[in-house]
TrEMBL record:
<dbReference type="InterPro" id="IPR000524">
    <property type="entry name" value="Tscrpt_reg_HTH_GntR"/>
</dbReference>
<protein>
    <submittedName>
        <fullName>FadR/GntR family transcriptional regulator</fullName>
    </submittedName>
</protein>
<keyword id="KW-0804">Transcription</keyword>
<dbReference type="Pfam" id="PF07729">
    <property type="entry name" value="FCD"/>
</dbReference>
<keyword id="KW-0805">Transcription regulation</keyword>
<dbReference type="InterPro" id="IPR011711">
    <property type="entry name" value="GntR_C"/>
</dbReference>
<dbReference type="InterPro" id="IPR008920">
    <property type="entry name" value="TF_FadR/GntR_C"/>
</dbReference>
<dbReference type="InterPro" id="IPR036390">
    <property type="entry name" value="WH_DNA-bd_sf"/>
</dbReference>
<dbReference type="InterPro" id="IPR036388">
    <property type="entry name" value="WH-like_DNA-bd_sf"/>
</dbReference>
<dbReference type="Pfam" id="PF00392">
    <property type="entry name" value="GntR"/>
</dbReference>
<keyword id="KW-0238">DNA-binding</keyword>
<feature type="domain" description="HTH gntR-type">
    <location>
        <begin position="7"/>
        <end position="75"/>
    </location>
</feature>
Amino acid sequence: MEALPRETTVDVLEKRLREDILAGRHPAGSMLPPERELADRFGVNRTTLKHAFGRLVHSGLLETRHGVGTRVRDYLRLGGADLLPMLVRHSPDWIGEIFEVRRTIGALIAERAAARATAAQVAELRALMTAVGDADGGEDVQLADAEVHRALARATGNRVYVLLTNTLFNAYLPVRAALVAPFLDAGVAHDRLAPVVEAVAASDEEAARVAAGAYLSATERIMLEGLAASRERRDGAQ
């Protein structure tokens, strides 16, 4: 029998089952073993198991049907982008795919913002850019930079772009500390992003798209290098 810490039984059980699902030990579409069997395997009661199942159902990894059992949901076919933070926690390899979408969406958002931003939105963008330059420390610069991108999304007038921007930021929150390298120098971070905001202020759609593409490619490269270095340090410490 595999015992779990009493004080965090549901949390640990949820994590264990989630890792088994995401690692493919319980493939999409497969039925989980009967509750009694799983409860005995982990040394928990069925109430605890049901609580863990409930969390995994809520996160989109399981589906239960009374009288049938609990099935692993095909999250890649049926799931939504809200699963990304969980997937990144399981495997940072997802970051590369997230950044690919970030490049495409970010350039389009900048282009649309240049076409649609109001004077008030341009003023907000410039104020947020000042906050980037004034921020103290990599984490604060990183967060200030993120607010500029949220404002760019709002300036498109399209709420879906706003939600997509939020989703992409939320997706890499689990590894945010390893992605701070582009933001360690507030002045450099400000100057790297400023051409995007200035192109939007000038209503120059092409320049905004090109500037955003350059910004996103440059920061992606630096962040991926930082993530790789973080992995090496972690692996070396093990």
